[in-house]
């Protein structure tokens, strides 16, 4: 369904290949709006009270960091197939902050072709989300479905 | 910072303890709005085109399922300490659909007290997100920071 020029399919990429996204600026407004809807803990919604928290200041919900990573992922991935995640592992070494200008870098770590379906496989990719100071905000290991180029 | 009656702290819960949330109804509007902002793939944003996709119909972004799980988690958890995730593993056995009425059940799978900080530890919890038909939409393994009751 995706109509990209130069799209890459399974069989046309290898372990070690990588791509980098554009950037996305995270605002205090977005951190608070997302948290009020989905993760209403005071250190995500109240800049004043957050100063006394574990995070010592307003911190983004890790799930907003994940959502922004996905936005950048959809925009930056070179694949011809859709992005359907099977299994994900996430770590947040530090919280995303207001003013962070995030980008992601994704690298293919493993490719396993399906034995029963020769046009299909599982790619393991690692996506690192960093801000403009190179601080790591999220590390994701993700298994996604891949397909060979349609004939 | 949380002021709950009957809050539970580290040392007052054990492996096997569990809790269940209230329910949350997922609408087509929310699926599309979230996806347009964070996961703009056609099977998350366009009910018609989605019929021809891997999901055979409009499917929620897995990241919206995660965000709703977190909303239910914040509302249902019995802990006196804040919820700070360290490491998460997610699987989506089936996609969340419009009309799903979701709830979560969380069970403590492991408790490891810190050696250096006696008031601190890591809880491993498993949270299963299901709809009203008992279909599993997400399985999460999560390591969270836990604290003993303040003296």
UniProtKB/TrEMBL annotation, chains A, B:
Entries under PANTHER family matching the protein: BETA-METHYLMALYL-COA DEHYDRATASE, MONOAMINE OXIDASE-RELATED
Organism (species): Jeotgalibaca porci
Q: What is this protein called?
A: MaoC family dehydratase
Q: Name one Pfam family in it.
A: MaoC_dehydratas
Q: Where is the MaoC-like domain?
A: 18-130
